[in-house]
Amino acid sequence: MNVLTDNFSLYGKxxxxxxxxxxxASLLALALGFLMASFRVAPVGSLRVFGTVWVTVLRxxxxxxxxxxxxxxxxxxxxxxxFQLFAVLALGCYTSAFICEALRSGINTVxxxxxxxxxxxxxxxxxTLGAVVLPQAFRSVIPPVGSTLIALAKNSAIAGxxxxxxxxxxxxxxxxxxxxxxxxxxxxxxxxxIVTLSISALFNVLEKRWGVAR
Length: 214
Known about the structure:
Elements: H1 2-6, H2 8-40, H3 45-59, H4 63-73, H5 83-109, H6 112-120, H7 125-155, H8 170-176, H9 181-210
């Protein structure tokens, strides 16, 4: 217990770092995932190809390798940003591929007649997608999107290996100070549990309010 009380500020700083990474990367992943899902069902062939390549490459690239590419590769091209921002980019882009596929699976559950009816009324592709298809698809993708964001929160632990302040990285300092490694990781696990259970609770509320009735 002493490891927590003696180093509460260190744990707090790491916990807040993890929360910030999770929130910012989740927002980026949701935005990019929505955009790529729109591309993948778009009537324009080049957009479909771009969306397919984006998802295929990111889903089949190890996240650690993506961190190396973003945090160590981009500065070589003159793009120098804080490491935390690089970590958000890596996490957000990686997770967006899975968000995209979850959204696309939801879009595929919407009857094709819905889109055809909207187009017969003169609605554009964007209007049909935003006003007709996505609101219906959203109801069925709440659980998988929630699970994906929970995975994102846990994946943020990789950022600690790249000089980004987050919860798992606190073990290095505490280990050097001689604290029990077991209790160190127990309290780290508690911190991640708080984050993931909060996300789970949020999506449970969303599912009860807007999800598909069972």
